[in-house]
Amino acid sequence: MALMHTFRFMRARNDCAKKCNGEGPRTWQTSRTELLSLLPCAFGLGLARTGYALLSPTDYALSNSLTSNSFATARSILLVALIVLLCAHGKTLSKRFVNTFAHLSIAISAACLIGLCICSGVPDLNLSSILPIEALYIVGASFGLLSFFYWFRRMRNNSPAAIVVTIAVARILYEAAMFAQSPLTPTFSYALGAIVTLLQCACIQAARRAYKAFPTNDKKPDRTFLGFDSHINDAKFLVLCVLACVLLSSAHHLLRTWPVDAVTPLTETTTLGACLLTVLLLAGGAVAALRFRPLTLLLVNWLTVSALASIGLLLYTAAPQDASWGAMFVTASNSLKNVLKWYLIVSFISIGKRDPYLYAAVIWLIFLEPRVLGDGIVSLLGAFGPVSSNETEAVISFMLNASSLLLLLGIGILFADEKRRAESTRIAPTSLFGKIAGIEEPSSMAEVREQAMTHSIERLGKQFLLSEREMEVIKLYALGHTQSSIAEMLCISKTTVHAHIRHTYEKTNLHSRQGILDYLNDYDE
């Protein structure tokens, strides 16, 4: 009910904005359609994560060091190879290739789960000691990760609110699925994993037909994806988030293997508690995503992850004889940290111009190596003598605090830079007449230039009888945009953009972008 009321609130706010733009109000049916359109992608992402978890030694399958090390090495090699191939290709992969490769990845991952299901049903068979079975884990998880990346690609060009809701619902489905399969035998778990993995194909078909929820590709967005004044600051902030997440992930790695140098097991009570705590926080985040700015929500999520990790650290220290309670909070914190990682991947995909698989592979590879940093610091301390439990606790606290401080410091620097840049380019405030007439003065030279270009193109259009679309295209072209970027901004094909430019040249007897600029300058003078 809370989610439905929140969507009604957003509908009323969007109605107000659209009335100001001269558009009709949005109906409740449209808002409900937007809500339902998130479900195929959310289900697909949750199903992909469940199948990948069943094939990952660190999550479910095997806990012996040989398989875990082999799996980590194979996964790193896969990601590096994917990054090299995408950089060498240099172009965005076509939709047909992406869809075909996604179905192929799903089929291979499901086949590996079926093979493990058959092998686990053989009595007296040790799955951790047979090389072909280990290969099933590695191959299945590798292609499961690639199908995982497909859903990140599918989520691009949605608003931050829609992305957060989709990720939250997907993670809730994953937590519920993993808790439900925990009492099952490996044979039934692998069989269920194969079915879950194959269901992604149905989710792909539903997602391709779904209505795009809360799209961000407006013609004149007031802010960028994360709420800054420029996409460059978006990218800078995301890079800071990734660096801070490396420190946070290193602290999580040390927490999960402290204070007994092994992963602390959870009891049935603490397992249920970690699942419920994660689900409640994710549900609250999904509702809050529809009310608050993405940057605010990101900070709250970050502070929640750090707070849960700190509570786990305190419980480890206060009750070392029963570490499962501390592990409960650490597990919930780690789940929310993974949600943060997913959001960072989709954010990079949404603001970047390269292929989405490249961003997903790079960030995933960065998140694979934080344990090296944590273990390296502890090993460095060990060179000066035995590392005590208090020293390890101090290292964990330092990493948690350093990650938060890095993020807050980065935000302060970026906003100070935007304020300084705005003050240096600000022009005179709007006069009383301008306010009465509804004429608002722009706040930066870029807006001044765009408004001046708009007026010049309108005069050009009246003089040479240009259509509205031709004026829209030629304005963007005169502002320096390429034909490809214009096609993407206006949601038309590149051929159509070229045709509009050619028709404008024919009507105006001008034959280049510079010729149009020179004519407009001469006309203004």
Automatic annotation (TrEMBL):
SMART domains named in the record: HTH_LUXR
Keyword Membrane among record annotations: yes
UniProt keyword list: DNA-binding, Membrane, Transcription, Transcription regulation, Transmembrane, Transmembrane helix
GO molecular function terms attached to this record: DNA binding
Transcription regulation keyword on record: yes
Domain (HTH luxR-type): residue spans on this chain: 459-524
One Pfam family hit: GerE
Transmembrane segments: 35-55, 67-88, 100-123, 135-152, 161-181, 187-207, 237-255, 270-290, 297-319, 325-344, 356-374, 394-416
Taxonomic superkingdom: Bacteria
Gene Ontology process terms (BP): regulation of DNA-templated transcription
PROSITE patterns, per the entry: HTH_LUXR_2
InterPro entries per UniProt: Sig_transdc_resp-reg_C-effctor (IPR016032), Tscrpt_reg_LuxR_C (IPR000792), WH-like_DNA-bd_sf (IPR036388)
Protein's recorded name: HTH luxR-type domain-containing protein
Organism for this UniProt entry: Rubneribacter badeniensis
